[in-house]
Amino acid sequence: xxxxxxxxxxxxxxxxxxxxxxxxxxxxxxxxxxxxxxxxxxxxxxxxxxxxxxxxxxxxxxxxxxxxxxxxxxxxxxxxxxxxxxxxxxxxxxxxxxxxxxxxxxxxxxxxxxxxxxxxxxxxxxxxxxxxxxxxxxxxxxxxxxxxxxxxxxxxxxxxxxxxxxxxxxxxxxxxxxxxxxxxxxxxxxxxxxxxxxxxxxxxxxxxxxxxxxxxxxxxxxxxxxxxxxxxxxxxxxxxxxxxxxxxxxxxxxxxxxxxxxxxxxxxxxxxxxxxxxxxxxxxxxxxxxxxxxxxxxxxxxxxxxxxxxxxxxxxxxxxxxxxxxxxxxxxxxxxxxxxxxxxxxxxxxxxxxxxxxxxxxxxxxxxxxxxxxxxxxxxxxxxxxxxxxxxxxxxxxxxxxxxxxxxxxxxxxxxxxxxxxxxxxxxxxxxxxxxxxxxxxxxxxxxxxxxxxxxxxxxxxxxxxxxxxxxxxxxxxxxxxxxxxxxxxxxxxxxxxxxxxxxxxxxxxxxxxxxxxxxxxxxxxxxxxxxxxxxxxxxxxxxxxxxxxxxxxxxxxxxxxxxxxxxxxxxxxxxxxxxxxxxxxxxxxxxxxxxxxxxxxxxxxxxxxxxxxxxxxxxxxxxxxxxxxxxxxxxxxxxxxxxxxxxxxxxxxxxxxxxxxxxxxxxxxxxxxxxxxxxxxxxxxxxxxxxxxxxxxxxxxxxxxxxxxxxxxxxxxxxxxxxxxxxxxxxxxxxx
Length: 737
Known about the structure:
Immunoglobulin-like; 45 strands; globular
């Protein structure tokens, strides 16, 4: 209470001081999209070039100097943007910063508030709208494949189960958000199989535990998707249509309505993607609709997000080892909605209140009985004959989420004590789940969990040093109270441009946790009996890195080293085999994962961007319920997490043509056939994939587009038993009215 009173008094005292002084020099800094640029360094220079004062822009990009200066100039500097100098004007002015050849972004996810990435200590990557449009990947998972430290694993063609692993963590250790709406199921699981890239503005990926900011599930990172807003420059409504198709009976179509009317902006879209993939019962169809509506009321802005996704995917099984199952399929429906209120109460105080709801309903059905089979592959044969059995499995989960955040900024950076941001956030989650097989005869799992969280975070920018420290207190209806701290630092060792440009050092430490799934906790099925006494899984992590710019901001090299230690991992334990099989879940396993990431970006000439990234991952199981198991035993690497991976990318804009080339490499990794083959398969081979895409703009209204995936037609399996797609191509057009 005393801290809150002090903050309020400081806030009003600062407001009073500003209202009593005459702002002789003031302005606002924006980027080429006219968005505010916060925390830019603004210098007031005398006629001889000497500095008379300096300040930082606030969250709205505004700055001011309370002094008179004749014949002075303003210089605005921020890493990733071109430094700009303009003469002083007594009138309010807008200064537009142009992007450097290798640009930086204003990111939200690392600190829950808009911050230039050059001032963020957390390891963050951004997939921009320009890259999304150039690469023309239909699914978000394919875009994420090139992010350092990230491994994507898809069990077959489009629509098959798709998992994401960050820095050696499990597939349910990453928080996934859409415009702030949590998408993970209770327990952290998220299947990327039907998440299309339609209507996305950009994607932010933060690596490292972020439970201090986002609670459970953010064990090793956060992926946040941002949908497109109505563009103010469009004025009236703009309609965009796209249609392309290719081999494997592939069709990709969509429509988008975008515009702005006064203070109301809108964007609504529809997309459909369908393909037969390859083989029997492998077809996949997905239809997505959504809207993003915003109303500016002055100090308060209201935004409503809506997205609904319906898909159907055939489940042929591990067709490399067995005949295809010709009647199994999965129906999936995902709906997300959220409304938020942003209020800039004063120049120094910002508040946000949001309510979101998401529902995911997955029905996996196999009602026919296929003939018995014995799995075989390349001289490996199972000792057992496998039989099909009917199933009608339903997984229906819902989440209500309420979030309130208050940000107070003290200090403008004009004086040596810098700029300081205090964040207080409160959240409530209500998770509901219905899970069961309607043909098994067992009672379904139907439970709900409540989770309350409180966040305090302090950010300071003092000269070249940016510090962020905070913690989250979680009060869970089942697990009780959990406290997770986080500390992050970034220091600009150099700020200048030139042949050797800005140098940034960064360090992060954090704890992460993840609640078990509803099945782990409450399943009534004796063969996988739930355990309500399970503890959350934990992670202790730290990382440090360096970023160096070269060649007048035309090149940047980034090197990061990380270390994760996982404990209390949930493992399945067999209790008995007779008179019937009985098993349950326990907290036993432990593992570690450390490694390094190397990222190179360069823009050698206008319109050309080249990227390269390499990830080294050393993962090890340190404690196991089956210590001698050849796959899950002590001393083994973690499943489906390669030691070596990387990518090379190029995007070239030349006159009316935009061309994209993406080459990805995934090294050898631990895997299992899960079919009892003898001798067993315990390793999956390395593979590479080359994707191409192009757009040729004949006019403002029409562009010809095309894409080729797996252009070298390589045969490989991302997961053992599930062959990946052969070479595939699409071609068509985009129309704008």
